[in-house]
Design a protein that fits this description.
Pfam families: Hydrolase_3
Order of helices and strands: EHEHEEEHEEHEHEHEEHEHEHEH
Largest sheet: 6 strands, mixed
InterPro entries: Cof, HAD-like_sf, HAD-SF_hydro_IIB, HAD_sf
Radius of gyration: 18 Å
Shape: globular
Strand content: 15-25%
CATH class of the largest domain: Alpha Beta
Protein name: Hydrolase
Organism: Herpetosiphon geysericola
GO molecular function, one term: magnesium ion binding
Structural class: alpha/beta
Number of strands: 14
Number of domains: 2
Length: 271
């Protein structure tokens, strides 16, 4: 029996991965079944290329990956299909404001981290990775982001302060930058046109697959654009309100192997 969809985009954290950073056996088996049925399976993540690739390898995914919240789409051999860095002046504005407000912020340049000082926040962030990430500590981060293409910016703080930045910074840069939350403690800034929905559209066009033939699964605000763009968007049972509002269907939770269920029931059409 042929699958219902030809391209499947999967978020990682909160969708395929819990704190153990290991997809469940049921998830691995469902992804393998989709691949065997001819479905192009990809990862759509906010992670860097170097931190997404180990999970792609683990799941035998060779379809181009959507990384950096959709700001970068790249094939397995390193061919770049889409890259959308922040405008330098806007990147500098965000970094300058974050530092003035006493917030920790990190810039992503050339698939490496750039920060002003080694702090508990960067150690927390590095704990989400299976591989070592190069970290560049520089005193003049504002000038660095003016000079080098920045793929995205991330600030890490407590949920209350993060909510404040979502409201204030979102209004400040509305229409000029994408400002969103990717974790209870992480806020992000990307160039306009950088979203998982845009990245998924780029990939579908590259593969010659129609929008109606695309499915996606995610759990957070940063997944909402791809859940809305896909022909069939599925939100995890543990999803936030943004992902739930964008989805066509709500799956069981991560703890209940919701992604595996969604793949088998809706992508493969198993009863």
């Amino acid at each position: 029996m042929s699958p219902n969809y030809r391209l499947l985009a999967l978020d990682l954290d909160g969708t395929l991965l819990d704190a153990s950073l290991e997809p469940s056996a049921a998830t691995k088996a469902a992804i393998a079944a989709a691949q065997a049925a001819g479905v192009h399976v990809t990862i759509a993540t906010g992670r860097m290329i170097r931190t997404a690739q180990p999970f792609a390898d683990m799941l035998n995914i060779t379809t181009p990956l959507i990384t950096y919240q959709g700001a970068h789409v790249q094939t397995a051999d390193g061919t770049v299909l889409y890259d959308n860095p922040l405008p330098p002046d806007l990147a500098a504005e965000v970094v300058e404001l974050a530092l003035a407000e006493g917030l920790y912020i990190q810039a992503y340049i050339d698939d490496q981290l750039w920060i002003v000082e080694r702090s508990p926040e960067v150690e927390e962030y590095l704990g989400f990775s299976l591989v070592d990430i190069p970290v560049n500590v520089v005193p003049n981060l504002v000038e660095i982001v003016r000079q080098k293409p920045v793929t995205k910016l991330v600030w890490i703080t407590n949920p209350t302060e993060l909510e404040r930045t979502m409201q204030e910074w979102g209004a400040r840069w509305q229409g000029r930058l994408e400002i969103f939350r990717s974790h209870d403690h992480f806020g992000e800034a990307s160039a306009i046109g950088s979203s998982k929905g845009v990245g998924l559209a780029v990939l579908a066009e590259h593969l010659g697959i129609a929008q109606a033939e695309v499915a996606a699964i995610g759990d957070r605000e940063n997944d909402a654009s791809m859940l809305a763009w896909a022909g069939f968007g599925m939100a995890m049972g543990n999803a936030d309100r943004f992902a739930l509002a964008a989805a066509n269907h709500v799956l069981p939770t991560l703890a209940e192997d919701g992604a595996a269920y969604g793949i088998r029931r809706f992508v493969l059409g198993e009863e």
